Structure formats: C-alpha cells, structure tokens
Amino acid sequence: MSKLKLSGFNNLRKLLSFSFYDFVVATDEADRKSYAAYLNERYAAARVRALLERIAEIIDAEVIAASEQDYDPYGASALLLLSDEAGSGTPPSWAASVNLHLDKSHIAAHTYPDFADPRGILGFRVDIELSTCGEISPLRSLNEIFHFFDTDVVVIDYLVRGYTRAEDGSHVFMDHEVPSIARFIDPDILDQFERSERALPASHTWQLKLLRSRIDPAEYFAPGRSVDEELLESVLEEMRTIYRHL
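The structure corresponding to this sequence follows.
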C-alpha cells in the first residue's frame, strides 16, 4: 500500500486486544495456595505496569499518567495514558514506513485468576488492550508481550476504525498493510502453537487464536508432584475447550 499524504492529524484508531490463558493442576489446597502466591508475585500490578511501560517504549510513546491496583485475594490491573510524541520504528519490509503520533491513546491490562473448577484445574487470564491514534500499528509490541506471559491459549484481535483524510479531502480508512497478525510474531513463538486465523480485510478486522501444541506435562503440576495422566488430559481438554469456544 503506497503512503498517502494526509491533511492534518491521522486520527485512525488502531485497537490491539488480546487475552492470554494459562492453566495448571492443583492436587490439593497447598498446590492451590502455592499457585495463587505465584500469580500474586509474578503478575503483581507493579510488574504488569512495568510491562506496559516497556510496550510504550517499543511504540515510542510518552507516558503521561499511570494507575495500578492489586486485588484481594488475587488479581491486578494497570493503566497507562499515552501522550503525543513523534517517533519512528523499523517495521518489517512488507509494512509501510511509519511515524508515530498519539493523542490520548492508552494501554490497559487486567488479570483474572479462575480457581472454581471442581477438578482442581486452575486458570489465569490476562486481558491487554492497546489503543493508538496515528500512523503506526501497535502490532509490533506482540513479541514483548509473549515473552512476559506464560500462556496455553491466546486470542488476539486487531481492529482499525474511524477515518482520516488525504490532502485532496478524500477519506482514508486504512493506512497500512496487515497480511496477518501472525506475520508480526516471531516464528519461534508461533512454532509452539496450533493456530487459527480469521481475516475480514474489507472490515479492517483480524483475529488470531493460538493453542499450545508443545507441552511439558510436568509444567502443569506443582514442583515435586508426579504427573497424573488423567488430570493432565483434563487440563488439556480445558485448553481445547477454551480454544474452540472463544
């Protein structure tokens, strides 16, 4: 897609949202408490906020306000408000060269532990939303996010909404190419997952779903616990169920 000369600020909205799901098995109350303590430490609000600040750095945004909150007994939220700052990145060869201009854009993250399964399957979900205005797509932040979170199932949605105008006054509804969301993710990461993609380019909407296919059975049990094949199959079926129905 050739680059257009725009009239004034590019106010196309790029919305990247994704949900990461992680699962383990608790064979008793001690395992449950151990996993809860791990989540409260590993994904505390301060650490999630640090990740969001790293994402802002990747997309050359300036943080003008931040908020974070831990919850009792578990869970956390973090929010960054991003200000205007010119910057540039090095996009893939198939993507247009871009400059960044953000106006009241934001990044928000929320974690949701799920300990209600009667079989002892414990789940953890984190939702992150990255909304930008301007010429850059937030898709190039994905690898950093994958490196931060342990994940078994992933759902990523990318939407472009609104319009801006070219110098001749005509509408511009899309200002960059999106071959697929997967093209923005390191192949070494993708190789760990089964994947399903949906694309509606005419509606400026893309989705990528991932289901972990390379697994280490011991990782689903507390350290020192032997692998229970029946429980392992239950957690794998839980993963497949979530993947199919999202």
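Residues 103 and 199 are 27 Å apart (CA to CA).
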